[in-house]
Amino acid sequence: MFLSRNWMQVVLAWAVAAFATATVVVAVQNAKLEADLRDVQEKIDIYKELDVRPTLQRERREDNIDYRLPTALLPKHYELYWHPDLDTGTFTGQEKITIDVVEATNQIILHSYLLDVTNVYVLNREVVEYVLEVERQLLIITLTEDLVVGSSITLGILFNGNMTDKLVGLYSSTYKSEAGDQRNISSTQFEPVYARQAFPCFDEPAMKATFAITVVHPTGSYHAVSNMKLSESNYLGEYTEAIFESTVSMSTYLVCIIVSDFASKSTTVNANGIGEDFTMEAFATPHQLNKVDFALEFGAAVTEYYIQYYNVPYPLTKLDMAAIPDFSSNAMEHWGLVTYRETALLYDESYSSTLNKQSIAAVLAHEIAHQWFGNLVTMKWWNDIWLNEGFARYMQYKGVNAVYPDWGMLEQFQIIALHPVMVYDAKLSSHPIVQEVESPAEISAIFDTISYEKGGSVIRMLENLVGSEKFEEAVTNYLVKYQFENTVTDDFLSEVDLVTDFDVKLLMRTWTEQMGYPVLNVSRGDAGFLITQQRFLSNKASYEEAPEDSEFQYRWSVPITYTIDAWEDDKIESFVFAYNIDTEAIALDADVQWIKLNVHQLGYYRVNYEDSLWDALIKQLIAYPARFDVADRAHLLNDAFALADASQLSYKVPLEMTAYLGQERDFAPWYVAAEKLKALQRSLMFNEGYVSYLTYARTLVDSVYQEVGWSVDANNHLNNRLRVSILSAACSLGLPDCLDQAAQRFNTWLQNPTAANRPAPDLREIVYYYGMQQSTSNSDWDKLFELFMEETDASEKLKLMYGLAGVQDAQLLFNFLVLASDESIVRSQDYFTCVQNIASNPVGEPVVWDYYREQWPQLSARFGLTNRNFGRLIAQITKSFASQVKLEELQQFYAKYPESGAGANSRLEAVETIKYNIEWLKQNSGDISDWLSGTSVPLTKKNRL
Ligand code: BES
Ligand code: ZN
């Protein structure tokens, strides 16, 4: 306890300084502490007469709360000293903040939350009182006199806090060592508003400062890492102080420390002349060290790509990565020390599927993209978080594509990012990309699919509009111009504007400042084609309710590209359809058979055609699918179904289009089709026509199912992705052979569940889920649960957890739900995934719904209303509800618990989805079953608006 005593002496010294009760004489062990004490000694006189009042914890409730910090004071430098105690799960800390005075004030206002602030001093000033204001998460320090403009002050604070039962701030994480004993580590997660839970600070992204960090850790197998390299280690017996180099100027949300006994491996990142080479080191629990090789190899490769792409040297001298056993999101881009959940970093070919491997690469590529875009240049405020997240989302696909060109990442953007967000963004509950946010709950909630996927999609559209070279040049200029500073959306667009010769800003404002997107309606005109645009809403009834609240009247400046049957495959024409123009005409010969707009679906809009044009496209697809490339085929399928779902096109069109799928063998279009076939199954379930639907859908997948089979190719990434997509659809749709195969594999393995007997990693989720689905014995579930409990590999554990949710017995699912709320069974980080898995099973859906409502008080107490994953749960659980009864249940629930926190939007979305589902059944189920029974009428406009 050598250092602890030492530490206590410092605490004591500070306390003495404040309360001036005695003279301080302490033997100190190191220069830093000595210096601190000298400071304190000097201040004793000042504080002699001072009455620092004890901290008041004030609750504050106002309707119009101003959450923003005043700008009178700007922090410049933090000296931080943290001692996380891994045994007790608590930490103590002290800090000195150097602050510039910009406006005269007698108050120092900064953030602090869930911290016990034990003392506050201001060098050469008198503190009247300090108050912790809970609602705004502020520490308000009042001084006797105004601070002088242009001067600089030093603020010292002593604090301590708790690290257990949380995944944000400075928190503890645990794991079992190979020998089976529990190990504790501590780590941090500060974005967006949690740095204030680890140290009082000016916790806004524009309040950049430098940080000199010292971390105390147990001597021996434990060590500490932080954003910067270790500069000095101070051995103090049982404890050691790790002193890190001072950081560059950066935002508080990027600060990170980890105290652990992790092992590491490293590699060199070759800067190829743009800056210096540097080391990349990957940390994991010691027995999993063999799982970091892939991340290191890919991490270095993608970093090298970014250095070339950005053409800006990597701003720090090292880049570490660490896999943390308990982690709230998937990964976090702390500057110089990216943290991940284990499934997002660790790769082991005996556990990880093709999709796991791709996800690891994608997450790394995403976080490393942030090291420049986000960390070096940061948004001023969370309103513009899309700049960070949308850009990184887009870059992650480019980054992976650069390293693995055969993974088809550019088409995968379309199916994984673009298609899903276009569903979300066709609702009235959506929101613009740039959105005002203030409170912690609002800030958490804005990390959503609009910021990420729509943000990424409009950046992709912009890149294709201006050309990739010019776009890259603009990115470099932007990074150089604003390095170490903060920006708003307009700053980025200005740089793009400068490298082009048209008004990029105005065009982009139509996409970033109003929600939603258009559908272009294409018809034949006298001398070619006519195009009009209209906002696309998935529920016809929404058109009447939609507020007219946009400056651009919900019209967009649309980058249009098109191609026609008569042209060479790669000939594309383009123009911009401006938001303030009603109709555009494309002059073409009358004998054009088909025209296809939005080539490769690089634009963020849908295209509807008059019936004869859809007919021609379908004929072409069936006659010779390769006339359209993979992205165009995926696009045609997606648009046709989405338009039919929205009652803007007869369902006959997408259904007839599916006839071509017999010839389709590429992943992206099949992914679209397979997802749609599963979604239609869920929509039609418990409705007439379900049985004939299943027959039709099974026939569709049968031939491709036979072809992909059950053996996994060693090295064909896209074929592996295709296989899993097809097997999952085939099993879901109940293709008898698929279910038999899954059950056989499940039973063989469960009888003797050795590692060697496991199915191939790619097949595991399907085998576990559908094997469990078909099992009627409770003991199978128990066995699977036992395997789940014993499993230590994080990605395997998730696969088993998914399998457990496949059982068809409501009682077992209920039991599972209850068990899952025990943290020693399901880690908090995985809880929402587990609940969602159960809710996605039609048998589990009502079980979860009852449980969620019944347990709301306990759940909201456990996770807190600002938790964005908790907030999102409501929309996920209720996404298949399609009746008035369910809608009323939902509304009753809202009335009973009106406080929704970060779930506010999710609640609106849930209501809107249910209304849409009800409407969808009315509009479409009849048409679908008519078509299936062969009695459909010819293509008509009856469903058009
Ligand atoms: N900056 C985020 C992490 C984050 C998310 C912090 C939400 C606070 C709230 C990070 O860059 C990120 O986007 N992580 C993603 C993974 C990534 C591959 C999209 C995540 O955690 O899901
Ligand atoms: Zn991100």
Automatic annotation (TrEMBL):
Organism phylogeny: Eukaryota, Metazoa, Ecdysozoa, Arthropoda, Hexapoda
Cofactor(s) required for function per UniProt: Zn(2+)
Protein's membrane topology: Lipid-anchor; GPI-anchor; Single-pass type II membrane protein
Pfam families the UniProt entry points to: ERAP1_C, Peptidase_M1, Peptidase_M1_N
Entry GO MF terms: glutamyl aminopeptidase activity; metalloaminopeptidase activity; peptide binding; zinc ion binding
Catalytic residue positions: E367
EC numbers on record: 3.4.11.-
Localization annotation: Cell membrane
Sequence similarity: Belongs to the peptidase M1 family.
Protein's UniProt name: Aminopeptidase
Chain ranges of the ERAP1-like C-terminal domain: 594-915
UniProt site positions, description: Transition state stabilizer: Y452
Domain of life: Eukaryota
Keywords of this entry: Aminopeptidase, Calcium, Cell membrane, Disulfide bond, Glycoprotein, GPI-anchor, Hydrolase, Lipoprotein, Membrane, Metal-binding, Metalloprotease, Protease, Signal, Signal-anchor, Transmembrane, Transmembrane helix, Zinc
Protease found in the keyword field: yes
Keyword field contains Isomerase: no
Catalytic activity, reaction form: Release of N-terminal glutamate (and to a lesser extent aspartate) from a peptide
Domain Peptidase M1 membrane alanine aminopeptidase: 294-511
